[in-house]
């Protein structure tokens, strides 16, 4: 390899300081890279010529030619730094000043990232798109020192063989999916397989084969996972004898979803080794070295706070201050097995059932014997299994090196024993996807499996028990304590309560393992009862349990202990080991290996295993701190007090009293109307809140005056109404603030001291601008008005060109509402990308007094169809048959999925904003009203970060809990609203129907109070989906696990709804309620067509919809 020399290298290439993660956090399209475990990866931003905020992104890698302690060379793809110039008819270099390289990168938009400019560059002669020689070398302005976070990747020999069959990876910040605007913030990686030359040629379309050089371009891919747009220039690295060697540079990939299974194409680095060396020799040299302290480690907000805290206390901790001060190791005489620390009590019940399977999140470290076992696949480290286990001890002492688990956890899918070196055990952890867990990893030294272990063809297992000897002995601390073992042949009575815990899935349909340790309380059931269900089990070998609310274990919990105690205060003993279940997770009886029957085997085999190599560093066995605990202190359950972890924020200053009316001024520009809705200035002594008493309509009339402006003074009469925050400095100098009307939809009525004269015709409404028979743009003939509002109206029109009936939505030009502009922008994007279930735009225009959009004319809204059934149900709950609910649910979710894929949030999902098609297109479902949409994806493809203060958007009864609490909305919030709509259609009402806000509360206060009420109800999943099919509870559990940046689990939800259809025996031909053969066709015929106005059937954009 080029970068290695004959002498020992103090900074070897291709060896990261932080171990890469291969398994537990797999997600669609790859998984997040363990921070700084690919220390050669760099992020390259090439800004547009006239912008320092927009441009294209690529990846690259730090390389070096000779040994040393710093490098200034970056290897990337040529197409990242060149572009075709039509003036010269060839590829030309982009301005070097517009290229910025980020090293030690993890989150690409991290404010403290380490950036460096480019001094010189060379490309390999790249002349044609998708062609060969797609390689470039950048010389950085400063040499990058080798640290834990920045190290070069190895270069291969120039005669290296194609690494077919080797363990290879690609990392990058590229888009998650083709034809999507979503680029992850964090660095991600996927495992790829390098293809042979013959397979590569076969995968390329014949028309393109002539453009490729298969000697210098290679193929690699793994199904749907591979490099995407934005990954260009990144390194394809293969792990050869523990070193990462770069064999390829991401060049280009498949251009459509259908072709994703073909492969991505890479520049083959070995063929360019000599060129790289020569390019290094001709480029301008770099003489300056970046100081090591300028290379920043990526830290989360929690970790930065914890680091500052540790520095202030001079406390010993891990590197980066990621965890709390280590607890003392227990003395042997203090040790009691099966006894958690006093300040980590076990939570024996919970209101919600959203964890393990019918369980809840365990109090951290309350089950200190529970360990997580990761066992990688023989061929693919990214494919393996997760299991649980328990620390046990066979002799007195204050440390242990023994873990008990299930035998099947140490076998692969083909029932072959996995190699010991691939087995890793994580001790004293709570959250498995954190640096805290990585720091507590212990390798297995040896393990032993019961010689008569057998996996039955029917899914059962016999003698399912194994022991793992750890490489390092684990000292006993508050977070690491072994569980006690039962005596030989010790039995438990039926009905005895026990605990099972693990990081596995929450249900049979759940797509992912849990982040935090979850637990459930289960009861021992009589063996004879269990035998009826599973006839092949043998008494004495197996224990059976069953929990309430389908509580029990699920996939990923195998090997975890079933712990029970004789009475309160007694130590906990591991009576069972999670083995198998005959059906879906916790639907029937769960089976465990009966430990008391194998106690003699445990004692014998445990003694024969080799001794540990050393003791695990006790300073790593520290308490896991959640982000809230870092910020607000650690709440101790037993002490009922807060242990502060740092200086607390001082209280906010109190608002000064208002003793006199406050004068404000309104300014506007007649020649260039502003895009905001008024500019206010206030003479105030310091910061305070002013509440304006203007009606919404009056406020807008002030804004839309267009003639010869002079500042007009008005007086705020009372200190009530909607809040505006106005700032001034300490001397009372004025500061202005823009107040946008669409942020203030609920201003109460009031008075204005001085009125502003309206221009001629300024008071006309949109409904008065068109009349029956009028022709717009010589094409659309107005037939009738469908609906109207203060500044807009919708008309049914006939297209003279096609004869088709369409809808024309207009908006007065004088208003700055601009909702129509938003709707046109969103619909055009959706139409261009062939989104499902949205109206087609057939015309857009602007006249002297109004602007308009012509689109598909739809039928009745889902809400109108439901309301038309009022006389059909004696309980007054208007609902569809279940088949119609499933159909509408699937189509309406598809509409949201397409909207999200194009970078938009809807923010007002409800039955009023969905409509069925007009006869005979009854099965067509349309998503409507995009006036409240927000783009959640930036121009560079990254996701917007949540704002701290957000005004309420949407409809109170269909809004998500986070939305009601004033938090920024994300894709998950749209899907929550969709789920509320699905429940409404299924049972005829929302779970919170009948709730009403206290009188006199502001809308903001109403939303907060309702959010707390709704949140409590949703946490009790059983009550929340009462009266709904069981699959709805699974959907609720999926949504509860969603974070702000997560893509909703659309496919899992579709799968659950399809399973429900199959279970009920429905097929695609089953008629919907409103179809000709539908159960309620006659009644739904009375439902009026949707008026296409915001809010649906004349509901407007009210914040409180008691439907």
TrEMBL record:
Keyword field: Disulfide bond, Hydrolase, Kinase, Protease, Serine protease, Transferase
Where does the Protein kinase domain start and stop, copy by copy?
A: 780-1045
Tell me which species this is from: Trichuris trichiura (Whipworm)
> Can the keyword Endoplasmic reticulum be found in this entry's annotation?
no
Q: Which GO terms describe its molecular function?
A: ATP binding; protein kinase activity; serine-type endopeptidase activity
Mind telling me which PANTHER family this protein's record contains? TRYPTASE-RELATED
Per UniProt, residues of the Peptidase S1 domain are 27-281, 356-607
Work out whether the entry's keyword set contains Kinase: yes
Q: Which InterPro entries match?
A: Kinase-like_dom_sf, Peptidase_S1_PA, Peptidase_S1_PA_chymotrypsin, Prot_kinase_dom, Ser/Thr_Proteases_Immune/Dev, Trypsin_dom, TRYPSIN_HIS, TRYPSIN_SER
Q: Which domain of life is it from?
A: Eukaryota
Q: Which family does it belong to?
A: Belongs to the peptidase S1 family. CLIP subfamily.
What does the entry give for GO biological process? proteolysis
Q: What is this protein called?
A: Pkinase and Trypsin domain containing protein
Renumbered residue ranges of the record's region Disordered? 310-335, 1088-1107
């Amino acid at each position: 390899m080029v970068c290695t020399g004959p002498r020992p290298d103090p900074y070897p290439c291709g060896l990261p300081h932080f171990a890469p993660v291969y398994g537990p956090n797999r997600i669609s399209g790859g998984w997040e890279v363990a921070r700084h475990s690919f220390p050669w990866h760099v992020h390259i931003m090439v800004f547009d010529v006239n912008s320092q905020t927009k441009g294209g992104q690529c990846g690259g890698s730090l390389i070096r030619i000779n040994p040393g302690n710093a490098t200034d060379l970056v290897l990337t793809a040529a197409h990242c730094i060149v572009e075709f110039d039509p003036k010269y008819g060839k590829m030309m270099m982009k301005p070097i000043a517009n290229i910025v390289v980020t090293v030690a990168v993890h989150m690409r938009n991290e404010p403290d990232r380490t950036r460096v400019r480019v001094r010189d560059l060379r490309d390999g002669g790249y002349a044609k798109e998708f062609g060969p020689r797609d390689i470039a070398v950048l010389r950085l302005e400063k040499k990058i020192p080798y640290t834990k976070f920045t190290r070069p990747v190895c270069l291969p020999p120039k005669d290296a063989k194609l690494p077919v069959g080797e363990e290879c990876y690609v990392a990058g910040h590229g888009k998650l999916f083709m034809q999507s605007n979503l680029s992850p913030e964090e660095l991600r990686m996927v495992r790829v397989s390098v293809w042979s030359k013959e397979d590569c040629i076969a995968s390329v379309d014949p028309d393109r084969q002539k453009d490729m050089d298969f000697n210098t371009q290679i193929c690699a891919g793994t199904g749907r996972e591979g490099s995407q747009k934005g990954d260009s220039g990144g390194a394809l690295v293969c792990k050869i004898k523990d070193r990462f060697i770069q064999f390829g540079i991401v060049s280009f990939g498949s251009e459509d979803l259908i072709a994703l299974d073909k492969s991505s194409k890479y520049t083959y680095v070995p063929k360019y080794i000599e060129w790289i060396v020569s390019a290094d020799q001709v480029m301008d040299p770099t003489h300056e070295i970046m100081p090591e302290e300028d290379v920043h480690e990526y830290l989360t907000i929690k970790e930065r706070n914890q680091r500052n805290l540790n520095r202030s206390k001079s406390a010993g901790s891990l590197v980066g201050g990621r965890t709390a001060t280590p607890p003392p190791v227990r003395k042997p005489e203090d040790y009691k097995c099966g006894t958690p620390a006093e300040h980590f009590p076990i939570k024996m019940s919970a209101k919600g059932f959203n964890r393990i399977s019918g369980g809840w999140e365990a109090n951290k470290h309350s089950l200190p014997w529970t360990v997580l076992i990761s066992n990688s696949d023989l061929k693919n480290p990214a494919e393996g299994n997760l299991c649980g286990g328990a620390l046990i001890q066979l002799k007195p002492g204050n440390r242990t090196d023994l873990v008990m688990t299930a035998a099947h956890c140490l076998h692969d899918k083909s029932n072959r024993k996995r190699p010991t070196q691939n087995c890793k055990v994580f001790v004293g952890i709570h959250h498995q996807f954190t640096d805290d867990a990585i720091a507590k990893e212990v390798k297995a030294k040896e393990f032993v499996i019961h010689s008569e272990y057998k996996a039955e063809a029917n899914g059962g297992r016999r003698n399912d028990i194994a022991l793992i000897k750890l490489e390092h002995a684990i000292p006993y601390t508050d977070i690491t304590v072994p569980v006690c073992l039962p005596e030989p042949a010790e039995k438990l009575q039926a009905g005895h309560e026990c605990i099972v815990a693990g990081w596995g899935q929450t249900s049979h349909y759940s797509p992912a393992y849990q982040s935090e340790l979850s637990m459930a309380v289960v009861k021992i059931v009589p063996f004879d009862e269990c035998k009826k269900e599973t006839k092949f089990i043998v008494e004495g070998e197996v224990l059976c349990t069953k929990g309430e609310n389908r509580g029990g274990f699920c996939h990923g919990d195998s090997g975890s202990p079933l712990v029970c105690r004789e009475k309160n205060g007694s130590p906990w003993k591991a009576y069972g080991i999670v083995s198998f279940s005959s059906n879906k997770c916790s639907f029937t009886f769960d089976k465990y290996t009966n430990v008391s029957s194998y106690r003699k085997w445990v004692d014998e085999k445990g003694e024969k295993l080799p001794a540990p190599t050393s003791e695990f560093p006790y300073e790593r066995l520290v308490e896991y701190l959640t982000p809230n605990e870092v910020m607000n202190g650690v709440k101790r359950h037993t002490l009922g007090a807060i242990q502060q972890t740092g200086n607390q924020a001082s209280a906010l200053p109190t608002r000064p009293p208002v003793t006199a009316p406050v004068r404000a001024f309104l300014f506007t520009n007649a020649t260039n109307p502003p895009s905001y809705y008024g500019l206010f200035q206030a003479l105030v002594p310091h910061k305070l809140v002013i509440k304006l008493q203007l009606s919404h309509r009056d406020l807008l009339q002030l804004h839309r005056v267009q003639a010869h402006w002079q500042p007009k003074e008005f007086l705020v009469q009372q200190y009530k109404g909607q809040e505006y925050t106005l700032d001034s400095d300490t001397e009372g100098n004025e500061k202005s603030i823009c107040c946008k009307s669409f942020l203030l939809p609920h201003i109460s009525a009031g008075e204005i001291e001085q009125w502003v004269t309206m221009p001629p015709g300024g008071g006309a409404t949109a409904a008065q601008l068109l009349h029956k028979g009028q022709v717009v743009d010589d094409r659309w003939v107005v037939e009738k008005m469908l609906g109207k509002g203060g500044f807009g109206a919708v008309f049914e029109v006939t297209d003279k060109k096609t004869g088709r009936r369409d809808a024309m939505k207009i908006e007065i030009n004088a208003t700055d509402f601009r909702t129509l502009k938003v709707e046109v922008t969103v619909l055009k994007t959706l139409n261009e990308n062939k989104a499902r279930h949205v109206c087609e735009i057939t015309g857009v225009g602007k006249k002297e007094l109004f602007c308009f959009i012509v689109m598909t004319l739809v039928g009745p809204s889902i809400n109108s169809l439901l309301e038309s059934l009022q006389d059909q149900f004696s309980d007054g709950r208007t609902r569809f048959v279940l088949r119609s609910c499933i159909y509408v649910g699937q189509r309406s979710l598809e509409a949201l999925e397409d909207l999200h894929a194009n970078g938009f949030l809807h923010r007002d999902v409800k039955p009023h904003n969905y409509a069925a098609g007009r006869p005979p297109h009854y099965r067509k479902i349309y998503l409507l009203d995009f006036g409240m949409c927000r783009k959640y994806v930036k121009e560079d493809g990254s996701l917007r970060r949540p704002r701290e203060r957000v005004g309420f958007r949407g409809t109170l009864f269909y809004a998500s809990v986070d939305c009601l609490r004033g938090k920024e909305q994300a894709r998950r919030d749209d899907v929550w609203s969709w789920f509320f709509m699905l429940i409404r259609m299924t049972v005829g009402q929302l779970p919170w129907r009948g709730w009403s806000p206290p009188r006199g509360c502001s809308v903001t206060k109403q939303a907060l109070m309702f959010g707390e009420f709704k949140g409590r109800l949703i946490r009790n999943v059983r009550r929340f989906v009462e009266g709904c099919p069981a699959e709805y509870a699974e959907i609720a559990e999926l949504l509860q696990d969603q974070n702000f940046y997560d893509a909703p689990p659309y496919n899992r939800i579709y799968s659950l709804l399809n399973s429900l259809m199959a279970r009920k025996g429905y097929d695609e031909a089953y008629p919907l309620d409103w179809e000709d053969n539908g159960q309620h066709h006659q009644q739904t015929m009375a439902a009026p067509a949707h008026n296409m106005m915001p809010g649906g059937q004349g509901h407007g954009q009210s914040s409180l919809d008691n439907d």
